[in-house]
Amino acid sequence: MAYSTTATTKGGRDGRALLEDGKLALAMALPKAMGGNGEGHNPEQLFALGWSSCFGQAILALAKKHDVDGSAARVTVDVAIDKDATSFALAVEIKVQIPGADKAKVQALAEDAHAICPYSKATRGNVPVTLTVI
């Protein structure tokens, strides 16, 4: 195992989340759009932060192969949550922007990054994902 981390939350979406090393602790809150007070963070925000960072690293790892400057990449991950007939479900849009780069090269790079990013791999077949090159 290359790395492992542990987080504990008490109080669910209106509680407090803490990493085991104590270096990050967050107040959690149900978003206003879902009937909460919105006075904290929510799991969808944290998921978006993690996925955008991880996907950005995949872009950096593969950029040279696509003859693109990966250091200029901006990765935005939009995470939506909605309720269906029986439960809640996520949907994601990953937006990749590399100023000055050929759009076709960036598209190919984004598709390759989506194939190796651990977040993309973990959700494949479970979460609908749209890749958008800006």
UniProtKB/TrEMBL annotation:
InterPro entries: KH_dom-like_a/b, OHR, OsmC/Ohr_fam, OsmC/Ohrsf. Transmembrane segments: none annotated. Gene3D superfamilies: 2.20.25.10, 3.30.300.20. GO terms for biological process: response to oxidative stress. It comes from the Bacteria. It holds the Pfam family OsmC. Belongs to the OsmC/Ohr family. This is General stress protein 17o. It comes from Blastochloris viridis (Rhodopseudomonas viridis).
